[in-house]
Design brief:
122 residues, mainly beta, OB fold (Dihydrolipoamide Acetyltransferase, E2P), seven-stranded mixed beta sheet, 7 strands, 0% helix, DUF5666 domain-containing protein
């Protein structure tokens, strides 16, 4: 028997970093997500280190959206907490969004880790 979402611990909403492959327009796309501290930021890239020391550098382009404060990725403060979503293009992680501040799910964000409206097990 499988645990219900409310019984699972350490799910996707608690992930420090993840990689998934999705089907898009008849092909496949690799998507990355990471929450951690900014170790360096500039106009064209940001480097993030998660609590488990996983470090990734993301390319920033004209389509990268920065939310939750500064709208310029180059102005992200070293040590600030961010959540980055990215796609992998030719072995390069390209940021699609950079959320400035704690963006993972859970009660601290007014959510419950994704279990709202979930049917009770049974």
């Amino acid at each position: 028997m499988q645990d219900s979402p409310a019984e699972m611990q350490g799910g996707v909403t608690d992930a420090l970093h993840s990689e998934s492959v999705v089907e898009v327009d008849g092909g496949y796309e690799t998507r990355l997500t990471q929450t951690g501290s900014v170790t360096s930021a500039g106009a064209d890239s940001v480097t993030v280190r998660s609590a488990d020391d996983h470090t990734e550098t993301y390319t920033i382009d004209a389509d990268t959206a920065v939310t939750g404060g500064s709208e310029d990725a180059g102005e992200l403060a070293e040590g600030s907490t961010v959540t980055v979503t990215a796609t992998v293009e030719e072995n390069t992680a390209v940021a699609t969004t950079i959320g400035n501040g704690r963006s993972r799910g859970g009660p601290s964000q007014g959510g419950d880790g994704g279990t709202s409206g979930a049917a009770p097990p049974g």
